[in-house]
Write a structure and sequence with these properties.
The chain has six helices and no strands. The chain is mainly alpha-helical. The longest helix is centred in the last third of the chain and has 22 residues, at about 95-115.
Length: about 120
């Protein structure tokens, strides 16, 4: 089985999401506003919120969620250790399937770190 190219996966998903946003502009606009308002710093900082979203993506078994929220967590300064602890919480809450998706989440995070390192 081939290793997932998370960068290409994210690029492809972004293209598909752009097509969907064009097809349903009002709901997509509302979702975008919800995402922006939710991730904005408040009582919790944006990094913590993205790590929470990553944990939920793991337990929901959502590949796209892993890609977008691992990338965003990195953007907000999440360390590999913080991602690992997030994966551990998801494993605790989600059991065996979260172990598999946790491994995928770590692979995504590492791919974006490598991309930033150039």
């Amino acid at each position: 089985m081939a290793e997932t190219d998370w960068i290409a996966f994210t690029d492809q998903t972004n293209k598909r999401m752009a097509a969907l946003r064009k097809a349903i502009p009002e709901p997509a606009k509302g979702f975008g506003e919800l995402a922006k308002a939710t991730i904005s710093a408040g009582a919790l900082d944006s990094k913590t919120k993205e790590l929470m979203a990553l944990a939920i993506g793991i337990t929901a078994r959502c590949d796209g969620c892993l890609a977008f929220h691992a990338k965003a967590a990195l953007k907000y300064g999440a360390s590999r250790e913080e991602v690992l602890e997030t994966i551990a919480v998801a494993l605790y809450m989600g059991g065996g399937p979260s172990m598999i998706y946790g491994a995928e989440a770590l692979s995504v995070y590492d791919a974006f770190v490598a991309q930033e390192a150039g």
